[in-house]
Amino acid sequence: MSVKITASVGKGGTNNSVDVLAIQLLLNKWIEPKIAVTGTCTGKDDDATVIAIKKFQGYFMKNPDGLVGKDGTTLRKLNMEPFILLPQVSGYGYYSYGKGNWNERQWGTKDTVDALLEITRNFRWNNPDTLVAIGDLSFRFGGTMAPHGTHKDGIHIDLRPCRIDNAMSPVVYTDTVNYDQDKTKALIESFLAHQNVKNILFNDPVIYALDRVSKYSGHDNHFHVTMLK
After folding, report:
1. For a Cys-Cys bond, which of 102, 135, 211, 223 suits 96, CB 3.0-4.6 Å?
2. Which class in CATH covers the domain with range 84-227?
3. Measured between alpha carbons, how far is residue 180 from residues 75, 146, 193 in Å?
4. What does the mean pLDDT of the chain come to?
5. Is residue 10 exposed (0-12), middle (13-18) or buried (19+ Cβ within 10 Å)?
6. What average pLDDT does this structure show over 193-219?
7. How confident is the model over 113-133, as a mean pLDDT?
8. How far apart are CA 62 and CA 43, in angstroms?
9. How far apart are CA 222 and CA 158, in angstroms?
10. Residue 7 clears pLDDT 80, i.e. is over it
């Protein structure tokens, strides 16, 4: 259940004791070192709660202001269930690809990441010569991730099709030399078999003939999985 406050907390805020207590407890879900839960905040720049709010806001704001409004973005982010970072280690049956820092772009809900790990691990067991290629999920606190229209809420995943040579490189479904349609179909079917998978976008006509798979512009070189939660 989301925590609500009656008035603003932090720099220049109203700082009612009960509201400050609530925000301090929420902050301690997210930041290290944790702050003392005192129910007090001076509203000044050197106050521990203001400093902690700015630290938290720094995860998703360019210019943290140290203030939590009763209906604003900061309170909504504080109330989120923390996203999980896709493990950036070998042994799970996949490799990461894409632009930017994977540690920034591969966060998802716990159910999404758990499902992804289960599917890739099982697929690798049956295809020991193949690593699943995983691209963008979401930022740690969600929100717009260019160039995507989705990937805002931790339940969307981009993955590359499989290659015949198993190289860790991109491939389009029209590449008759390198694209492995059979293996890609098997991978997508393994996603569809999982209880947390809602639907998939991919432009190979043989594969979008499957139930819950659709074609969509821009999805020749990757398929997009949407989870239920």
Report:
1. 102
2. alpha beta
3. 46, 29, 20
4. 95
5. buried
6. 98
7. 95
8. 21
9. 6
10. yes
Do strands 94-96 and 132-134 pair parallel, antiparallel, or not at all (unpaired)?
A: parallel
Domain boundaries, the chain: 9-78, 84-227
Q: Is the pLDDT assigned to residue 215 strictly greater than 90?
A: yes
Confidence (pLDDT) at 8: 98
Question: Would you state the structure tokens that stand for residue 64, as one six-digit string?
Answer: 């943290």
User: Side chain identity at 223, as an amino acid letter?
Assistant: F
| Model pLDDT, residue 92 | 78
CB-based contact 173:202 (threshold 8 Å): yes
What is the distance between the alpha carbons of residues 22 and 176, in angstroms, rounded to a whole number? 58
Q: Supply angle C-alpha 40, 44, 46, rounded to 5.
A: 95
Q: Are strands 84-85 and 132-134 parallel, antiparallel or unpaired?
A: unpaired
Residue with token string 């210019």: 63
Residue of 31, 18, 22 whose CA lies nearest to 57: 31
Phi-psi region of 98 (alpha: psi -120 to 50; beta: other; left: phi over 0): left
Least confident of 51-60, 85-94, 147-156: 85-94
25-43 burial, b at 16+ Cβ within 10 Å, e below that, comes to: ebbeebbeeebeeebebeb
